[in-house]
Amino acid sequence: MPQSETSEQMSLPPAFLDIRQATKSFGAGKVLDGVDLAVAKGEFVSLLGPSGCGKTTLLRIVAGLLNADQGHVMLDGADISTKPPHHRDVGVVFQSYALFPHLTVAENVAFGLHAKGADKSSIQPTVARFLDLVHMSAFADRSVKALSGGQQQRVAVARALAVGPKLLLLDEPFSALDRKLRETMQIELKRLLRELGTTAVFVTHDQDEALIMSDRIAVMNRGLIEQLDTPDTIYRRPATAFALEFVGLSTRLKGKVAAVKGAGELLIDTAFGSIRANGNYLPGSEVLIGIRPERMAFGARDGANTVAAAIQDIVFQGSRIQTHFVSGIDEPFLLETGGELPPGLAPGQQVPVSWSIGDTLVYPAGPSA
Amino acid sequence: MSGARLDRMIWLALPAVAYLAVVYALPLLWLLGRSVTGPDGFTIAQFTAFFADPFSWRVMGNTLRIAFWVTLLSLVIGYPVAIAMARARGLMQVMLLVAMILPLSIGVVVKAFAWQIVLRRDGVISQGLVASGIWAEPQRLLFTEAGLIVGATNVFLPFMILPIYSVVKLIDPRLTEAGATLGASPFYRFRKILLPLTLPGIVSGSAFVFSMAVSMFVIPSLLIGDRFQTLATLTGRSYLLMRNEALGSTTAVILLVIAVSIVVLSTWLSKRVGRSL
User: How far is A364 from chain B (nearest CA, A)?
Assistant: First the structure.
């Protein structure tokens, strides 16, 4: 498996949150296998991966709610690995929000300030300010049990931020909300955290959420970070076959390197004929080819990969149209267009489809993904 | 649900109502009647006589004092157990539950006799305290108030643990974690999160244990003896030994009033607490 592209660590400012070799096992199962992660001050980093990949475990270790078997957590230059959670200055927004049911909205937000022994006269204005930031001022004296999911989520964010944590951790805070509300809240939260300059680590299994909100995304799989990069790079240049499959849609073809020409120009044999790509592989290597559906187009092009494929289905999705082609394998061969389709296309038709050589992603074939 | 349907449902409760009326309500009414009936018809002389006697006040004092300490001791011991049981998982939880419920299947008489052995001058407790140097010489705990309190607590402990356990079970464990990440120390978390949220369980557990401890008869009879009287043992003696129905019915009614007040008070209290939660 190729290593993640974390070479930029050298050039970045010193990490604000620095996780080193975090390892954790539950029984015989290794949940975290020596994870390194550096987050700069003010950055918003998502841990993206399927359930069981270790992302929530990593979050709980940073919060101090779980002890790592090995490894260190550094925050703002100090090793906090052995500190109890209430001495860490790390706020958490839980998936279930975990609001205190016996307290009002304002009392929930004030809880941490009281607990930390904040100056009594400063508590009320601070609570008012944070309730205002999340647009919940009108609900200050309500019981939290009377709130909707979205409102509870706002209170949970206000409560976590009111104590001024150095780092905010968010554990799938949107998963209980319906789609429309979720999109509004994502943008709202992102804006709020940027305004406050809060450093945040966000756990999600929802790739759209990660792409929308993050400065950088850490794609996690089986207790390791497979790729840490900007959403744009993660999407366009997934470092591993897993990242390709987990983030966004893609067409994946199995192939075998038939010939290598010059500087890493490959000729790969596939079920759709010979495909050209760039990469460092030896002739005879089994590979997996990936293509993003929106990088494909109808019609043949010179200097590009062109194959003939039979249309299986045309799926209208509002702003985009997806064309599924017969691929001969379980996975669909996808083409996505934003505007209109060429006229006269119908299922069953055999048409030429092309994409550029640069858009052809190559990974070693293996059990991964 | 329609009114007619509800009316039909009420008939389902009829057997239970009839049964309770015959074996419970009628004797109780007879008891109440007996306590206000003298040779010349209605009288409250039995009550005035009872309250005029300093011995009666000592008996009531004994009853409430023992019940108070048993309740407090049960709470102090039972609360952490209830939390541990609710938070334990898998086999551990099953084992804790079994360890608590299994002793319930042993009769009170058997347990009381067992405690007699434990509390004797040459019993385990005495020997242990002497061996550890806390006591200079063996002492008898049997037939002392301390012995009674310890023994009764053992019998009633499950009735404190279960209501608290069922309340803790419903509390999201993330709440205390949230408290921790907000900078609250373990004690602050306990005081401001766990304690207020478990208060309804504490109230109903205490009401259970207190009302049982107020009216226990067998345990004091075996663990402290005749020199120490409570309302329940006095009621029993009045009927069984002294054949004094007037005194027996009077003490029984007073005991009943105390027990009912506890139930009413605790219901009111847990509703109040419940509302503010």
Answer: 42
Tell which B residues from 170 to 209 touch A, by Cβ distance under 8 Å: 172, 174-175, 177-186, 188, 192-193, 196-197
Cβ <8 Å between A64 and B197: no
Neighbour-count burial of B72, counting CB atoms closer than 10 A to its CB (0-12 exposed, 13-18 middle, 19+ buried) = middle
Q: DSSP string spanning B230-253?
A: -HHHHHHHHHHTS--HHHHHHHHH
Number of structural domains in chain B? 2
Domain CATH for A317: 2.40.50.100
Task: Tell me the percentage of chain A whose pLDDT exceeds 70.
Answer: 95
Q: In what order do the strands lie in the sheet with A216-221?
A: A90-93, A167-171, A199-204, A44-48, A216-221, A224-229
Cβ contact A101–B192 (<8 Å)? no
Residues A30 and A89 in one domain: yes
Question: Total domain count for chain A?
Answer: 2
Q: Between B145-169 and B90-101, two packed helices, what is the crossing angle to 10 degrees?
A: 140
Output the pTM of the full model: 0.84
Res B4: pLDDT:
59
Is the per-residue pLDDT at A287 higher than 90?
A: yes
Dist CA A5 CA A21 (whole Å): 17
Test mutation, A73, A100, A157, chain B, max B CBs within 10 A: A100
User: What integer pLDDT is reported at residue A355 of this predicted model?
Assistant: 94
* Structural domain harbouring A342: 251-364
Percent over 90 (pLDDT), chain A: 70
Average pLDDT over residues A92-105: 95
How many residue contacts between A and B have a Cβ separation below 8 Å? 73
Q: Do B182 and A94 touch (CB under 8 A)?
A: no
pLDDT at A339 over 80: no
**Closest residue in chain A to residue B188, using alpha carbons only:** A115
Nearest chain B residue to A92 by CA: give it. Answer: B181
Instruction: Return the CATH number at B80.
Output: 1.10.3720.10
